[in-house]
Amino acid sequence: MAEITVIPAKERTAEIVRTAAYARVSSDSQDQLNSFAAQIRYYTELLQNSSDTVFVDMYADQGITGTSATKRPEFQRLMSDCRKGKIDRVLTKSISRFGRNTPECLEAVRELKALGISVYFEKEDIDTAEVSTEMMLAIYSQFAQEESMSISRNCRTGVHKRMMDGTYKTASTPFGYDYIDGELQINPEKAEIVKQIFTWYVSGIGMNEIATRLNKLNVREEVWRRGTIHCILTNEKYIGDTLLQKTFTTDTLPYKGVINRREKEQYYVSGTHEPIIKKEMFDYVQKVLDKRYKSRGTVVEHSSFHSKIICGNCGSTFRRKGRKTCVYWVCRKHDESADNCKTRQIRETEFQSAFVRLWNKLQTHYKAILTPMLRQLETLSEREKSGNMQLANLRKEIAEIKQQIHMMTVLNSQGTLDGAYFKERTQELDRKLLTAQKQLRANLNDEESEQLDELRRLIGIFERAELIAEFNDIKFGQIVNKITVISETKIRFDLIGGIGFTKRIAR
Fold first, then answer.
1. Can you tell me the distance from the alpha carbon of 175 to that of 193, in angstroms, rounded to the nearest whole number?
2. Number of domains, the chain
3. I want to staple 411 with a disulfide (CB 3.0 to 4.6 A). Which of 66, 125, 216, 416 is the partner?
4. Can the peptide bond before residue 254 be classed as cis, meaning omega within 30 degrees of 0?
5. CATH number of the domain that residue 149 is part of
6. CA–CA separation, 340 vs 326, rounded Å?
7. Considering the domain boundaries, does residue 384 fall inside one?
8. Looking at 295, 325, 341, which one is the last position of a domain?
9. Over the stretch 146-181, which tens digit does the pLDDT of each residue have?
10. Cα separation, 90 vs 78, whole angstroms
C-alpha cells in the first residue's frame, strides 16, 4: 500500500491593504472647509487598530460640485494614484459624496474594479469587491444624481421667478458701465467710447475699421476685435434695457452653459438702468446690421467650428461665410484683403470629412497610438517629480505630520493625553498640514497634470466610442481644442491632452 504523507497548509500571511479615503464638501462654509483635517483623524482612528491596513492619503474636494468628475482635482488625483498602483482600497462616506453623476460614478467604480481596487461606501454599506453590488450602486448613485438635479431645478425655478417679476440682478458688466451697490452706473470715460462706436458705425465705417481705430488709440488693455464691436452694437443694455436668459444651462448631466437660440423663454426688462445710447440710434443700427447680413446671401447659423479654426500663416481665426451652394471658412485677414494673408477659403464639408476620418482612425487604433503616449508621459512626469528635492521634502513633511496626527489620536483614545493639550496640538498640526499641502500643490506642474488627465479622458472616450459615418458636433467638441490650417490641402487637429494629428483635405 502506498505511503501517504500529509503536507500541512502554509499559514497565509496577511497582506497589507493600502487604503485611501475620499471626501467632498460642496460649499465653502467655514465648518465644511475645516472638516478636512477632522476627516483625516476620523479615518486614521478607524484604521488604527488594523494590523493589515496602511492609510495612504486623504483626498478631499472642498466647495466643489459632484456632478462632474473633471471639476474635482482631488478626485482626479485619487484616480491617478490608483492607476499608478499606489492604492488597494478606497473608503468614502456615501455615494453622494463620491459623485452625483450616475454614468461617471459607475465608470470610476468599474475602472477601479478592473485595476483590482475596491470602494467601500459606509452609509449604504456597499462594497464593490462584491460582484452583486453594482446594481445596488447604480440605484443609489441614481438617487444621488436625482437629488442633485432636484436642487438644480429648484435654483433655476427661483432664478426664473426673479426674471419674470423683473427683480433678477445680472452680474455681467458691459463696457461703459461700472457695477456699484448692485446697480449698473455709467462710467463717463468709457461711455464716450461707446457713443463714438455707434457714431462711426452709423456714418458708414465698418466694424473692422472701428476696431483698428480703437486699437491705435489704446483705449483699453484688451485688443479690440470685430466681434467685440458687434457685441457692443447689438447689446440692449446701452439703451437702459436688459434681456434676461441670453444663455441657459442644459437640463441633463453634465450641465453646460449654451447660447439661448429661442429654445428657452427670454425676458426683456425695460428701464433697468441709465442709458448711454438713444433708442432711435440703437434701432437704426439694428436695421443696418440686419440689412448688411441679409445682403451677403445665405444667413449662416452657429457652428461648432466657431473660434476653433486658426490660420497657420498669420495666426488669425477663420470666420464662417455662406453662399447659396455651400458654407465655407476663410481667414479673417484674407477676407479683409488678399494682400494681408494668402490662405484661401476652405469648405466646411472638408473639415467635417477630415474629422470623421480622424475619429474612426483613433477609435480603431487608440490602444496603439494613445496608450503608449500616456505611459511615456507618466514615466517622464514621475522622473521629474522624484528628482525635485523641494517636492520630496514637502511630501516627507506631509507624511511626518500625518504620522504625528495618527500618534496623537492613538494616545488620546487610550486616555494618555490631556484633552486640552490634544486639542491645541492637533489644531497646530492641522494648520501645518494644510500649509504644506498648499505648498505641494503650488509646486506641482499643474499644466502637466492636467495634460495627463486630459489624455486619460481621451482614451476613456475611445474605449466607449463607435465608428461614425458622418460629422458629429458633440464628438467634435469632446476631443478637439482647435484646428490649424497649415495650407490649402493640409490641416492639423489639436486634441485634448496636447496631441496633434495632421490630415489632408481635397480641393
1. 9
2. 3
3. 416
4. yes
5. 3.40.50.1390
6. 24
7. yes
8. 295
9. 566 666 666 666 656 665 665 656 657 888 888 887
10. 9
Q: Which amino acid is at 468?
A: I
Judged against a pLDDT cut of 60, whether residue 133 lies above it is answered with: no
At 353 the pLDDT is 92
| Helix, coil or strand: residue 21 | strand
Q: What is the dihedral of CA 16, 72, 46, 95, to 10 degrees?
A: -100
**What CATH number corresponds to the domain at position 235?**
3.90.1750.20
Tens of pLDDT, residues 53-77: 888 888 877 655 545 666 688 888 8
What pLDDT, on a 0 to 100 scale, did the predictor assign at position 311?
93
Strands 183-186 vs 177-180: parallel, antiparallel or unpaired: antiparallel
Do 131 and 189 lie in one domain? The reply is no
Length of the chain: 507
Residue 357: pLDDT over 90: yes
> Which cell goes with 156?
433655476
- Clarify whether residues 497 and 361 are in a common domain: yes
In a domain, 372, yes or no: yes
Report the pLDDT value the prediction gives residue 34, as an integer from 0 to 100. Answer: 57
Q: Which of 11-25, 210-224, 330-344 has the lowest mean pLDDT?
A: 11-25
Report the C-alpha dihedral over residues 256, 257, 259, 264, rounded to 10 degrees. Answer: 80
Mean confidence (pLDDT) of the chain: 76
Task: Return the DSSP state at 180.
Answer: E
Give 228-244 as a DSSP string: HHHHHHT-GGGGT-EEE
What's the whole-model pTM score? Answer: 0.39
For 458, the domain range is 350-504
- Are residues 238 and 372 located together in one domain of the fold? no
SS3 182: coil
Last residue of a domain, one of 127, 158, 189: 158
Residues 488 and 356 in one domain: yes
Element (H, E) at 201: helix 188-202
Query: Do residues 216 and 238 both lie within one domain?
Result: yes
- Which of 402, 403, 388, 405 has the alpha carbon at shortest distance from 440? 388
Q: Do 257 and 231 fall into the same domain?
A: yes
Q: What are the start-end ranges of the E strands in 263-361? A: 267-269, 309-311, 318-322, 327-331, 346-347
Does the pLDDT at position 1 exceed 70?
A: no
Residue 392 DSSP code? H
Q: Is 292 exposed, middle or buried (0-12, 13-18, 19+ CB in 10 A)?
A: exposed
The helix/strand/coil state of 491 is: strand
Is 326 inside any structural domain? no
Euclidean distance between CA atoms 479 and 370, whole angstroms = 13
